[in-house]
Design brief:
The chain is mostly helical. Helices cover about 75% and strands about 0% of the residues.
Amino acid sequence: MTSPPHLAAQLAVNVLDAHSLLAAFGVLGVGVVMFAETGLLIGFFLPGDSLVFTAGLLCTGTGDQTVKLSLAPLLIAAAVGALAGAQFGYLLGRKAGGALIAHSRSRQLHEGVKRAEELLERYGHAKAVVLARFIPVVRTVLNPMAGALEVPVRTFTLWQVTGGLVWSVGLTLAGYALGSSVPNVDRYLLPLVALIVVVSLIPLLVEMLRARQGADARGGNK
């Protein structure tokens, strides 16, 4: 049975703060958040990047940490949540079409839809599904968008699993590696989380640069 102090801590959790989520729910919370952020449209605001990175860092047991996690269960929870969430979002999109998005009044969510459509149109299904994993909000809406636009199930599943494993496992191990190599790294958690969010956008920036260079090359050959 949950003790009153622990129950109160869970009820008071700040869902926008990775450390608060981990302190309240531990590894289970990672799986739930990863599922919600990638499978449920209402989860677009959740801190997926910073959560798995912070969780990986807390697995090292270094510094004055009040939260300590085990790496193997964390990797499993992050991967299962990310993969199951994306597949659920895709199936939801196939069933409900764009109705769920159309009824939403969130400006941020609709901007994410627009960016998701641009990714699918510019890069094709496979590359867009992988790249979307590294873009906040877009990774939430692209999965139901892919379902609504009837992206082939086999194509979507293959590439969402590929991108999902690189994203979830990669960020978790990055946090773990940094925590293992830098003493008292938890003191610099906030700037590190900001940095990891920026770094997660690098794949998209690289693809945008390549596309621009390709367009310039085609224009020069005319």
